[in-house]
Structures are given as C-alpha cells and as structure tokens.
Design a protein that fits this description.
CATH superfamily of the largest domain: OmpA-like domain
CATH architecture of the largest domain: 2-Layer Sandwich
Distance between the termini: 128 Å
CATH topology of the largest domain: 60s Ribosomal Protein L30, Chain: A
Strand order of the largest sheet: 1-2-5-3-4
Largest sheet: 5 strands, mixed
CATH class of the largest domain: Alpha Beta
Number of domains: 2
Strand content: 5-15%
Number of strands: 5
C-alpha cells in the first residue's frame, strides 16, 4: 500500500497536430481581396463608360494609342490632367491631347460658331427682359390688396414665342359677363395693369381667346365666334391703354379646343392670352 501511495502519478499529454501548415490558412483571404478589387475596378469601368461621352472615350483611347502623335500641353494646374477633369466636355481634344489636328480644328470652328451665334444671344437677352416684366407684374401685388386679388387671375410663362400673360376666369369671378363677350370690371382693371407693363417694351403683341365647352352639344356651335369676339374685346381694351394698334399682330379665337383643366365646362377654361412676341432676328 505504501509503495503505491509514494509512486508519482502518470500524466498523459495529447498534442493536437494541425495538418496542412497553419501559415497557409489565410491564402483564401488574399484571393478574396483580389476578387473584390477586380470587381470594384470592373464596376468603376462600367460607371466611367456610362458617365462619359463618345468624344471623351475616343480622346482617352487615342491618348493611349502609340500610333497617334500626342502633344503634351499643360494647362498650368496642380492637379491631374493639368487641373481639368476628364468629365469636362471635350477637355482632352480641346487641349490637343489625344486628338488629331483635323479633329481639333473642326471642334474649334464649331465652338466659335456656337459662341458667336447672334440669335442665341438675342434670345437670352429677351428672356432676361421677359423675366424682368414678370417680376414687375408680380411686384404690383404689393401696391394694394385689390391689385393682389386681381393678380390671382393672371398666370405667366416664357415660351419660344414670347412672354405669355394669361388672364382667366375663376368660379367666383369671371372676366366676361355670362356667356357673352362683354368684359367685366375685373378684365378692364387687368387690362390697365397689362397695358402698363406692355408700355415698357416695344415687342409686338398677339392675342388669343379660349372658351369653355357648352353643356349641351348643339348642331351649330358658337364657340369659335365667341372666342374671336372675346379676343377682339381684349384688343380694344389694350388699345385703349395707349398701345398702338400697329403692335397688335394677331387676334385669334381658339374656341374650346385647348383646355387647361380636365373638366371641359370648368370656368378656368375661359381665358385670354396676351403674348409679348419675341423680336424677329
């Protein structure tokens, strides 16, 4: 018994053996990182192809083509591409980088032609004038609450034809008496405001009247005659505001063919458009 008690205990150690080598266990991470990088580069390439124009892509392709002579010109910028972006329209061809001399000459001529277009410059100047008139018209609303209420019957917009001043009826107040062509006091007051605005410019004027549809379809519709009569009444009101008759170039009636709201019989469809026409070049 004593011999067994004094004997040392037997300790068994089990060593875990890792097969394949631990230092090779992270190789898949490197492969995955390469795959993610390649996918990121692929998506960036797709984005660049979609964000650039055909001319820009051709300029980049020509830049790396060894058979095309390249004139390296610096714009003096500190950043890449001499401080310019490849997304700027025609940046590389304009600098002579990545484009032949013939292409560069054609593009320069096209740029000069568009930049010196007198029609485009005249249109831009007229737009500024129309915007000023529009702001002047809106500013009149601050003169009194009466004028402010009157301006609720006016809508304006700038189109290729000119500045359109639309005077329209509302459910509570019309611009013509009943279903006739007699101007109401509202329209007479609005004609005074429009006349004051029109006197500040010399543009010719066109007038067009629109009416709402009839509740009952008749064999002989009076919509054409009524719209033309209303346009004529608007012409007479403007001429009474010291606007020369020579400025009136067109008076037309559109009947109920051009509606502004879905309901053809809505009062909002009764309207008169006064157009300050663009000057002919």
């Amino acid at each position: 018994m004593s011999a067994q008690a004094n004997s040392a205990p037997v300790i068994i150690k089990r060593k875990k053996v890792v097969k394949g080598g631990g230092h090779h266990g992270g190789a898949w991470k490197v492969a995955y990182a390469d795959f993610v990088t390649a996918m990121m580069a692929f998506f960036m390439l797709m984005w660049l192809l979609n964000a650039t124009t055909e001319q820009q892509r051709k300029g980049l392709a020509d830049y790396f083509a060894p058979t095309i002579p390249i004139m390296r010109v610096s714009g003096g910028g500190d950043a890449s591409f001499a401080g310019e972006s490849i997304f700027s329209e025609m940046t590389l061809p304009r600098n002579g980088t990545g484009a032949s001399g013939a292409i560069l000459g054609d593009q320069a001529q096209a740029g000069e032609a568009s930049g010196n277009d007198p029609t485009a410059a005249q249109s831009a100047d007229e737009n500024l004038t129309f915007e000023s008139l529009n702001e002047m018209l809106k500013g009149m609303g601050g003169e009194s609450s009466v004028i402010d209420n009157l301006l609720e019957h006016i809508n304006t917009r700038i189109t290729d034809e000119g500045l359109v001043i639309e005077v329209h009826s509302r459910e509570t107040l019309q611009i013509f008496e009943g279903n006739g062509a007699v101007p109401t006091l509202l329209l007479r007051d609005l004609a005074k405001i429009i006349g004051r605005i029109s006197q500040t410019v010399t543009n010719d004027i066109a007038i067009g009247a629109h009416v709402r549809a009839q509740p009952v379809v008749r064999r002989h519709s009076d919509r054409w005659d009524l719209s033309h009569q209303r346009a004529t009444q608007m012409r007479l009101l403007l001429e009474g505001q010291a606007l020369g008759s020579g400025r009136i170039q067109r008076v037309t009636g559109h009947a109920d063919r051009e509606l502004v709201v879905r309901d053809p019989m809505a009062m909002r469809n009764d309207r008169v458009e006064i157009i300050l026409l663009r000057n002919k070049g």
